[in-house]
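User: Structure tokens for both sequences below?

Assistant:
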Amino acid sequence: MTKLTFGAHPYLLGFEQLERLVERTAKTAAEGYPPFNIEAVSENAYRITLAVAGFREDDLAITVEDRQLVVRGRQGEDTTDRVFLHRGIAARAFQRSFVMADGVEVAGANLEHGLLHIDLRRLVPETVVQTIQINSGPSGSGRIGRK
């Protein structure tokens, strides 16, 4: 028995990368630290908020790599001689990834009160209508015209 994948479905032309995208997203969902929220700010705007208590701006890095938003945090070494009776505030390094759709871009980021806010916006593409001319003759010689 063969496995039917997204890219193999006859009505999903050009979606071969969809399965890889779903697999990559499933791997990043297993991460548990730091906790985060995702909210729809408007129809074409989103905000990701990560709880990064104890991290300074210099400890954080935000990059976009191949449609993947990557947030990394690494605190400097604690050189004080503090003795903790209980240490419940995590100070470990992290990497949190979010896969972004085509047309979604990072609009900005800010850090306030231990929360890192990353604003995203979706660019709305203009609608393109194509008229396909039908020719008689050999297959594959049709021309595409845009309106």
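Moving on to the next sequence.
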Amino acid sequence: METEKKIRIKKFFYGIIACIILLNLVFTEKNSVGSNVNNYFATFNKIDGVSVGTDVVISGIKVGEVKEIFIKDNYPQISISVDKKIKISDDSSLSIQTDGLFGKKFLLVEVGGNDFYLQNGDKFSFSEDSIVIEELLKKIILIGEKNKGL
């Protein structure tokens, strides 16, 4: 009876130690990932086709991804994370682009020429909305109908 009780106590303490180790690994992993990126924000009017995980690209090279999408003052806000090694000047712009005519969306950073750089938590001054294909086609049809009547 006494040895069975000792075995249960040992298993209990082994379980607690295992839980502490697992929690330590989980929180350590989150901290190390967060320290390798800078987070930036941008405000748009339309973000059709953009979701969490959408690529952030500079000159065709993926440098980050969309981390969060939320609404602030009735406008969509996007939070992106970019590799800390990448320096983005404070006059850079962020635009929503499409890969081909009907491809997936991505965010393109057009790097400016300033010698001052965005810091972690800063906001892009310039942003360009997503182009909705349906709206573009409607405009083309209207132009065609106007020209047809001439």
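User: Anything stand out in the second?

Assistant: The mean pLDDT is 85.
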